[in-house]
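Hey,

Quick one before I head out. I ran the complex with beta-D-mannopyranose overnight. Inputs first:
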Amino acid sequence: MIFFLTMMMMLAGCESSKKQLLTTSFKINTNWQFAMADSGEWLPAKVPGTVHTDLLAAGKIEDPFYRLNEKDLQWIDKLDWEYKTTFEITDQLLLKDRIEIIFHGLDTYAEVYLNDRKIFSADNMFRTWRVECRDILQAGSNELRVLLKSPINIGLEKLEKLGYQLDADNDQSENGGLGDKRVSIFTRKAPYHFGWDWGPRLVTSGIWRNIELLAWDDARIESIQLVQKSLDDSRAKMEALVEINALSEQVCHVAIQCKGLQLASEALNLKEGLHTYNLKFEIENPKLWWPNGLGEQNQYALDFLLSKEDHILDEDKIMTGLRTIKLVQEEDADGQGRSFYFEVNGRPVFAKGANYIPNDIFLPRVSPEDYEHIVKSAADANMNMLRVWGGGIYESDLFYDLCDKYGIMIWQDFMFACAMYPGDSTFLDNVRHEAIDNVKRLRNHVCLALWCGNNEIEAAWGPYDENRGWGWKQRHTPEQRNEIWQAYDTLFHKILPEVVAAYDAKTDYWHSSPSAGMGELASYDTRAGDMHYWGVWHGQHPFSDFKKYKARFMSEYGFQSFPEFASVQKYTLPQDWDIESEVMAAHQRSGIGNLRIRQYMEDDYQIPDDFEQVLYVGQLLQAEGIKSAIEAHRSDMPYCMGSLYWQINDCWPVASWSGMDWYGRWKALHYFVKDAFKNTIIVVDKADDDLIFRVISDRMEAQVYKLQIQLIDFDGKVLMEKDAVVENSGNQSRIVYQIPKNEMLALGDPKAMMLVANIESEEKVVDRAIHYFAKAKDLKLPNPEIEWSINSENGQTKIVLESSRLAKNVFLINGDCHFSDNYFDLLPGVRTEVFVETKLSPKMLAEQIRIMHLEETMK
Ligand code: BMA
């Protein structure tokens, strides 16, 4: 067997090294210039890029994120812009059978000219545009010119033609100087560019993804779809559906290799044109891919080679993994509801994660490091799923590569959110192409768990009950209502599911988030489908209501906070350092935002006078609230099988629901989430007269834990101790212990004591929960004297902290460091180590670091 494998490897190795690859490609991303259309004033430009960032680089505008600058930049989207470059072509290249130019992303209405001949028009930011242009190219210098027309002006024309306004509540048309004319829905462009309740209105234009020139002979691989036919411990049976474009009937050869090992090798009689060829192959002793926390993220790098005689015509590389992911919706035994959970490799998995928005309003400047930071931060916080929300973009390939690598399953919305869309045939056809492009691009990613039609449109329209929805249908005449619903029905119940079924049948499709299923109600008391619960925040419900509103899968809920002071300083001046200042208000896009934060803060905390402390307490408020929600959802397992809070990231510096700010800094929330999403947690909860202790575990196996409970006062005096041996059978939420509250309340001052519960396994603390008996604002917190030192061991910097009295919510402050833990309660007498990622020496860090804790902020 070993001999056979070696031979195969050698064979495979020879094949690719000996032959020459005939397909050539290069990027046309350099030497670009841009100008306001017809101005003739050309300036250097970046491709991929946007008009706004090019204007910024040329010194023509101020930083759009600084103070109130956004307001002064609304003229940019009302104009047309031109881009041009020249590039060289050799005589030799012109000998190729085909030469195509591929635009991987044009934002958005574009007319493209090559050597003064128009080669195509584009009208969808999410599509890939590809044109054959050999006959127009010439040896030597060639000019490419792109005219980008104002999406606002074209939107206004389309609005006039339609004759009535389609609903689009998040479109900040007023900020754009358009009054109530909301034009975002007409253009297939990232909806959030037109403003959102956490985003600025900066409607970009630009060549936002790579331009590639591709030259080839005879035949090429257009796309590959991997299908996992069966999978057991000994082998995975696979099929590759290889779409090949052949210029004539011919005999070619296709091989599939993995790490030099030949998995398939077949001669094919290619027919002329675009056809799909089916190749079977097997992977022996398959190693499965698992979501983060449940196992390894094994992947296979497959190499597809299309060859003819002595040449390799084309080569395609795919990174993929072996697994099954299914969305399971089964009737409950009592017939009262339906499950909604993801089953991975046959095992029900509780989805832990967040909603994800684009990382910047100016997309091309999101760097590979930024992408790695966000996805790694999700994994570090023990998440296993992100929902790519429908008001943004179908993300870059790199983003999904990273999700594959870090074990983050992707719930992928199609890009439609909180609005009703046109239903004319041009629009629908455009969307069909967009969907095909993106489904084909993303379908082989092992992280892809679900395609979802849209964000909140079904809930907003309320199609199945006259009294449901956000009042949109009532704004229209019966004819308009009918027309709008027809468009919805065609888009989300026909076109998109058809595309998914045709191009990625292995992945489930869910038509809208939230929904209880078609024909039923999308409502807050859902017993089926997924749910967005906004009672807390929008509905002003108390945080404790996170326990009341039960869902099968909670795909949105959230609470806002401000970025930390180090971040706020970057976009403000000292005179802005007041929550109500004009600048802080402009960086808060939810109308009720600051008021809501204040209302909830008053309930739980003493509101500090100091601005920096308000930001800090605001972050604690958010973190505690969302942590309580996660604990409630996980406690409800297996009834509830998912908890994705709104939102992990930001697209500019702003007060928002995010757990990380635009600068990439973790808010208190992200640290709290890291704890709350651990595989095994202990949750202390109030229930009538008792405190109940629950062990929740996502582990596969049963596990016995030692539970240790201590009631201690803030000076560290132990008032009560209990321990017990408890068990969790794996993938389970289970009450393991309870204590009458009165028993504890009799032992000390409820405002000056806390209960600490640890679960241990194999002598290691698996999790620790701290329960207080009064609201933070009422606690009699002592003034702690925190002793701390910084040292470095094996290149690893750490801070060691200790205090004889409780120091609540210790915040280590240094904007340029990342801490392994922060905002934590330093328990009396418990030595605590925090690791620091920093470029600073221990000495410099010691000089620069500041420490804040809750007691300091109280009167
Ligand atoms: C949800 C999201 C977003 C919005 C958020 C906060 O509805 O889908 O549209 O930003 O709530 O309001």
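The chain has five domains: 7-15+217-320, 24-213, 337-675, 678-779, 781-859.

Talk tomorrow,
K.
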